[in-house]
Each structure stands twice: as structure tokens, then as C-alpha cells.
Amino acid sequence: MAFLLDAAPDGAVETVEWDYANNRAVVQRVSGDLQPIIDRNKERLNHGDSRIRTHDGMDARHVATVPVDVQYLWLQKYGICAWDKNHWPAVKRLLNSNEWRYLRTSELYL
Q1: CB 65 within 8 A of CB 37
Q2: pLDDT of residue 2
Q3: Cα–chain-centroid distance for residue 65?
Q4: Mapped to the 3 state alphabet, what secondary structure does 8-63 carry?
Q5: How far apart are CA 80 and CA 87, in angstroms?
Q6: How remote is the C-alpha of 67 from its chain's centroid?
Q7: Which of the two ends of the chain, N or C, has the fewest CB atoms closer than 10 A to its terminal CB?
């Protein structure tokens, strides 16, 4: 029997289950449907205004939405931690690449 640990807004769930054969807990993350996020990013890229107002009243630009599942993939595949400011140059390189272009919501150069 699996127990729910966490559920993300994108539908991804994380569960824990006891593996009796190996006498250990197994945590499994099942990815959510990323297509709605990609579709929204494309819509914003083609027709949206990327200007946003921050909580402190400053003007900013929304340039990308990177789902948590993609952030984990980047960490595993490239060793890039998207939430670490020291890795931001590498995140920018990925977002400017053709492979990860669908995560962009603005044509502004990063």
C-alpha cells in the first residue's frame, strides 16, 4: 500500500511504500501532465505581455516557467540546480537553447 507524501498543482504526486522484500521504504515521484504548462508558455510567448509587477511594486519580466519535474531532470542530467542562484548562468543557457525553448514565456534574452 502506498501513502501520499505530496501532491503538486501540476498533478505530480510523490508516494512512499514499504518494500518488504528489501526491508526499506521506497519513495516514488510520478510526473504530472506538463502539456498544459507548455501550452500556456507558448500562448504567453506568442500573445502575452511578459511585464509583471512584483510584490514590492517593482516592474519585472516573466521570461520562463520551469516545472519542478524539469528542474529535477536538469539536476539529474546536467547537475544544474535551478533554484541555486549560482547555477543561474547554466539555467539561462538551457532556456536559451532550442531543446528547452518551450519553457520560455518571453523572447527577452536572458
Answers
A1: yes
A2: 66
A3: 7
A4: CCCCCEEEEEEECCCCEEEEEEECCCCHHHHHHHHHHHHHCCCEEECCCCCEEECC
A5: 6
A6: 2
A7: N
